[in-house]
Amino acid sequence: MKVEFKRSFVKDLERVRHKGLKKRVKQIITQIEEKQTLQEIGNVKRLRGGERYYRIRMGDYRLGLMLEEDMVIFVRFLHRKDIYRYFP
Question: How many domains does the chain divide into?
């Protein structure tokens, strides 16, 4: 699948200081690029806010994704207490 990043996602990722967490995000990005659907990746859940919004759980953090045809757009990467306030 094609991958695109919103500016908000890049800023969220820059704020994270945990190197292991950043490495895990990079692994998930490469997994998504290699797979054909989001369901092939673990911990993916569709959100109630809309048909095209998904999240991936990573410990206490959540990756907010938006699906458009064959493209995955990374929108936010926030702590679990904040993600649902700012995404979708």
Answer: 1
